[in-house]
# Entry
Amino acid sequence: MYTLKLCSLFPLSQAPRLPRAGETIHGHKFFIGFGGKGANQCIQAARLGVKTAMVYFVGQTSDAATGAASITVNDAGENAIVIVAGANMLLGREELQKALPAISHAKVLVCQLEISPQMSLQALRMARNSRVKTIFNPAPAIPDLDPDFYKVSDVFCCNESEAKLLTGSSVTNVEEAHRAGQELLKRGCGSVIITLGPQGSVVLKAQESTSKHIPVTAATAVDTTGAGDSFIGALAFYMANYSTVPLEEMARRANQVAAVSVQAVGTQTSFPFRHNLPAELF
Ligand code: RIB
Ligand code: NA
# Structure
């Protein structure tokens, strides 16, 4: 499995609520961890027991520093993130070409939008040309997403807010997610998964006309940061190692992995290893 990623350090503050513009508030916990959606997804997949690799750029020039993100988490476990992609936006065609051997020999390629969108798209095309399965996570979401992203995604996986930005319709419940999923599916992807936090996820496949809701067992959320990454990392693991399992079942299991991650603070620090999880997930 090979993943394109942002490599970053991120300061995380826990506070009773998220600050408003111009406001300073007291928080009660602060630490610096590792992050970047690609890195998080890669770590989660590796912890479940699959060989992983990453393509990324760190700041070595005067032009850009290594990517970083600042995160605030409120008492409800919700977060607000500002990411500064830095050097990752300098990853270009030349670097990508050097990664071709690794991409073409992978079982699954996962891409996000923390590098330049055109480079993510190019990587997905490279994977497709080598018959490597692709997962595209349009995060952080951009309104003017190149329509080709849909055509090169075996699985197009996003959360509620990303689905809302891409479809222009509100996605707050299962019903709305079914509708948004249908709209995204029409744009040409093999399948669509919309993650809905405590409401689980919806799974739609191009070959079937049904949209399935996959609920998740309730978990008390301490910090939901990176839960989507935990889900995608787990999904990539299942697609690589359990390729005959139906996508709905992969989503059900990935939901359970992500539900473990929300019960502890941080992203990678909270992602479970295979030995922390019930045997029925493997
Ligand atoms: O998805 C959560 C991640 O997004 C954080 O780890 C942060 O690094 C940002 O990139
Ligand atoms: Na967490």
